[in-house]
Amino acid sequence: MSQAGVINVAGGGGGGAPVQTLTGNSGGPVPPTGNNIKIIGGNGINIVGTPGTSTLTVNVINDGFPWLDEAVSYPATVQTGYFNTGVLTASLPASAGLANGATIIFYVDTASVVTVQANAGQQINIANNLSSVGGTANSNAEGSVLTLVFRIADSSWHAISSLGSWSTT
């Protein structure tokens, strides 16, 4: 979060002037209401205020990723982890609108075949194994985990972590 205006608070080492505004990554400046600016954590973020020390503590819970159980084929969503519990195909999202570093995690929770399907024009890269365009990554080994991040420059998904047995086609 960036700041705009004066951020001096009595007892905080400043001159005691009240906070005038705060500005985040998006939206406009946020002026105080009743001399207060409320900061609320989003998905996977918990913010705790300690009035006696004028401290806000920001904790990331579960890396901000919601985790879902999936037993049938589904379209995967970025910034989400999946426990795959059946024979299924997880379809990766289309490249349009994705940002560099968009991340998805797949966990094979049973000894069933889990297929991760690249979208049109995409490839999946696991170590030195590159899928065909629109190809797949597959595993049937319980406990296998695949963490994929998207790279705009080559419209592909790159494994930043891979445990167990994954193959590409």
Structure in words:
The protein has 169 residues and is mainly β. The protein has 2 domains: 2-60, no CATH class; 65-168, Sandwich (Jelly Rolls). The chain has no helices and 16 strands. The protein has strands at 2-4, 21-23, 45-50, 55-60, 67-70, 74-75, 80-84, 88-91, 103-108, 114-117, 123-126, 129-130, 136-139, 145-151, 156-163, 167-168. A hairpin with a 4-residue loop joins strand 3 (45-50) and strand 4 (55-60). It is elongated and about 60 Å long.
Going by helix content, strand content and strand pairing, the class is mainly beta
Sheet with most strands: strand arrangement: 5-7-9-14-15-11-12
CATH architectural type of the largest domain: Sandwich
Summarize model confidence as the mean pLDDT: 85
**Biggest sheet, in brief?**
7 strands, mixed
Q: Count up the helices.
A: 0
CA(first)-CA(last) distance: 42 Å
Q: What is the CA-atom radius of gyration, in angstroms? A: 22 Å
* CATH top level assignment of the largest domain: Mainly Beta
CATH fold-level label of the largest domain: Jelly Rolls
| Whole-number count of domains | 2
Element order, helices and strands? EEEEEEEEEEEEEEEE
Tell me, briefly, the overall form: elongated
Low-confidence stretches: 1-13
Tally of strands? 16
